[in-house]
């Protein structure tokens, strides 16, 4: 009861509080549906109760705030419905439509006792926020930014944003590491929280780290998986979506759900339903590159073998032709050399016979002349002796000695003349024989030199020194002017032959 003091009615605080409590209890007897933002859930795990902080904002300013209570049994029931319908648990920062009673406690003050929360309303609010994020990104021209980036021909180096313990990450790595085609990927894990209130900041931070070392990676893969449909609202966050949309290299996602795509997935270059599907997407890029390369390799190998076979056949034909031509040339030169040898021998024999005849004639002449000279001298001496006898000259012993000396001198002179002629004939014979022999040796050396030159000119030896023969329409090509782009030519090597097609002609001015 109030007190009256100095004409003043005074109430105690408890009386005022109980009056307010009674007034509110009389006025707010029903349950009311109230929409508000759950600023903080304040769930206490040891008791299971929640003490949410409810707000209402206008243009970013708080215009109302009330505490609430949510007992354990109601929380578990409501939270289960949220997971089933929204695919998200109750959490901070979402707009809710709650059913609550209004009460006032003299000690704890005014509060709302929550008995139910409509998840459909929160789902609509989340979708509204999602559409607002999409509209903002499109307005700023960022929605298609990442999709317009050029995708690498072979996405070999991957920066992975995920959790080490994620089942989706394990599935992803199993496929790319153990693919049956032998493709090899390089990747590095950047650990991040992938669901919950802190997931947005965690993923953005890891993207910032990757941005500092872009030259090391071809793509970024955000892999969640293994968590079902729960905890996806963070991927609708406009800040995370902007970080992905503006990333300088392609971002691909494997979030692991089958419902409507999140904003982050929509702005990514490629999003797959599961991490396994994302791994298959990367393998498909390797397939797309490998198939034409493999086919080209097979065609190139076949065409090359055909070229080698054709060139080998042509080279064998040319070798046979050059061998036959060389043999014919050698045979002809041997025949000419044999004829030259025979003519040389015949000429030598004829000249020897001529010299021998001359020698014999000269010998006969010298012998005849010597005998004639001796006879003349002898006759002269005899005539002189007879004359002396006729003249009855009595020669002295000294005179007879002089006559004998003269006769002996004449005989010696005749012998000396004969020796000189004999020596001249001998010298002539000696000089003639070496000259003929030298002529034969020089002719033989000439023949050997011709044989060596013919052997060196054998085309097989020329080809072995690194040269080749180019044929166009069966004729050897020595001038580029006879060729034009598109002509087919054949090249003969020391071992094998090739067919080619002219793609460029560089004419040299003469």
Can I get a quick summary?
With 510 residues, this protein is α/β, with parallel strands linked by helices. It has 4 domains: 3-122, OB fold (Dihydrolipoamide Acetyltransferase, E2P) (Beta Barrel), CATH 2.40.50; 140-273, Rossmann fold, CATH 3.40.50; 312-459; 464-501, no CATH class.
As a percent range, the share of helical residues equals 40-55%
Rg for CA atoms = 63 Å
| Structural domain tally | 4
| Widest beta sheet: strand line-up | 3-4-5-7-6
Which class best fits the helix and strand makeup? alpha/beta
* Shape summary: rod-shaped
Keywords: Cytoplasm, Exonuclease, Hydrolase, Nuclease
InterPro entries: Exonuc_VII_L (IPR003753), Exonuc_VII_lsu_C (IPR020579), OB-fold_nuc-bd_dom (IPR025824)
Catalytic activity: Exonucleolytic cleavage in either 5'- to 3'- or 3'- to 5'-direction to yield nucleoside 5'-phosphates
Domain OB-fold nucleic acid binding: 11-117
Describe the structure.
Residues 11-117 form the OB-fold nucleic acid binding domain. Residues 142-500 form the Exonuclease VII large subunit C-terminal domain. Its EC number is 3.1.11.6. GO terms for molecular function: exodeoxyribonuclease VII activity. It catalyses: Exonucleolytic cleavage in either 5'- to 3'- or 3'- to 5'-direction to yield nucleoside 5'-phosphates. With 510 residues, the chain is of the alpha/beta class. It folds into 4 domains: 3-122, Beta Barrel (OB fold (Dihydrolipoamide Acetyltransferase, E2P)); 140-273, Rossmann fold (3-Layer(aba) Sandwich); 312-459; 464-501, no CATH class. The chain is 53% helix and 18% strand. It is built from 10 helices and 16 strands. The protein has helices at residues 13-27, 72-85, 119-139, 167-177, 199-211, 238-245, 263-267, 275-390, 397-456, 459-464; strands at residues 3-5, 8-10, 32-40, 53-58, 61-69, 94-105, 109-118, 157-162, 186-191, 219-223, 251-254, 270-272, 469-472, 475-476, 488-492, 497-501. The strands form 4 sheets. The protein has a 5-stranded mixed β-barrel with strand order 3-4-5-7-6. Strands 9-8-10-11-12 form a 5-stranded parallel beta sheet, with helices on both faces. Strands 14-13-15-16 form a 4-stranded antiparallel beta sheet. A hairpin with a 3-residue loop joins strand 6 and strand 7. Helix 4 runs parallel beside helix 8, helix 5 runs parallel beside helix 6 and helix 8 (275-390) packs antiparallel against helix 9 (397-456). The radius of gyration is 63 Å and the shape is rod-shaped.
């Amino acid at each position: 009861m109030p007190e009256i003091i100095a004409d003043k009615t005074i109430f105690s605080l408890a009386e005022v509080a109980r009056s307010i409590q009674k007034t509110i209890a009389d006025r707010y007897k029903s349950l009311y549906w109230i929409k508000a933002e759950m600023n903080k859930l304040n769930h206490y795990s040891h008791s299971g109760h929640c003490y949410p902080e409810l707000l209402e904002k206008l243009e970013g300013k708080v215009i109302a705030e009330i505490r609430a209570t949510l007992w354990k049994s109601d929380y578990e029931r409501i939270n289960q419905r949220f997971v089933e319908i929204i695919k998200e648990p109750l959490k901070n920062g979402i707009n809710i439509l709650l059913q609550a009673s209004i009460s006032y406690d003299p000690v704890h003050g005014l509060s709302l006792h929550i008995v139910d929360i409509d998840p459909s309303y929160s789902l609509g609010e989340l979708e509204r926020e999602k559409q607002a994020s999409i509209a903002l990104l499109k307005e700023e021209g960022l929605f298609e930014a990442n999709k317009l980036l050029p995708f690498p021909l072979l996405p070999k180096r991957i920066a992975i944003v995920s959790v080490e313990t994620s089942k989706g990450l394990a599935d992803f790595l199993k496929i790319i590491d153990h693919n049956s085609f032998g493709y090899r990927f390089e990747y590095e894990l950047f650990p991040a929280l992938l669901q919950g209130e802190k997931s947005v900041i965690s993923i953005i931070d890891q993207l910032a780290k990757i941005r500092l070392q872009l030259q090391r990676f071809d793509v970024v893969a955000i892999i969640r998986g293994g968590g079902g449909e729960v905890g996806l609202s963070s991927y609708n966050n406009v800040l995370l979506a902007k970080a992905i949309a503006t990333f300088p290299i392609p971002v691909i996602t494997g979030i692991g759900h089958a419902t409507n795509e999140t904003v982050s997935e929509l702005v990514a270059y490629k999003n797959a339903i599961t991490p396994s599907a994302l791994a298959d997407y990367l393998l498909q890029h390797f397939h797309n590159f490998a198939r034409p390369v493999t086919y080209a390799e097979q065609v190139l190998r076949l065409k090359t073998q055909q070229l080698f076979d054709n060139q080998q056949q042509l080279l064998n034909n040319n070798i046979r032709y050059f061998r036959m031509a060389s043999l014919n040339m050698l045979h002809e030169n041997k025949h000419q050399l044999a004829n030259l040898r025979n003519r040389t021998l015949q000429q030598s024999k004829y000249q020897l016979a001529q010299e021998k005849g001359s020698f014999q004639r000269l010998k006969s002449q010298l012998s005849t002349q010597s005998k004639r000279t001796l006879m003349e001298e002898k006759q002269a001496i005899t005539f002189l002796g007879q004359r002396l006898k006729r003249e009855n000259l009595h020669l002295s012993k000294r005179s007879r000695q002089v006559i004998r000396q003269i006769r002996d001198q004449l005989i010696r002179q005749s012998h000396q003349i004969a020796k000189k002629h004999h020596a001249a004939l001998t010298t002539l014979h000696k000089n003639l024989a070496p000259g003929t022999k030298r002529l034969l040796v020089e002719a033989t050396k000439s023949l050997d030199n011709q044989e060596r030159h013919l052997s060196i000119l054998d085309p097989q030896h020329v080809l072995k020194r690194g040269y080749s023969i180019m044929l166009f329409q069966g004729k050897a090509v020595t001038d580029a002017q006879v060729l034009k782009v598109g002509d087919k030519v054949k090249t003969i090597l020391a071992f094998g032959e090739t067919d080619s097609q002219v793609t460029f002609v560089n004419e040299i001015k003469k």
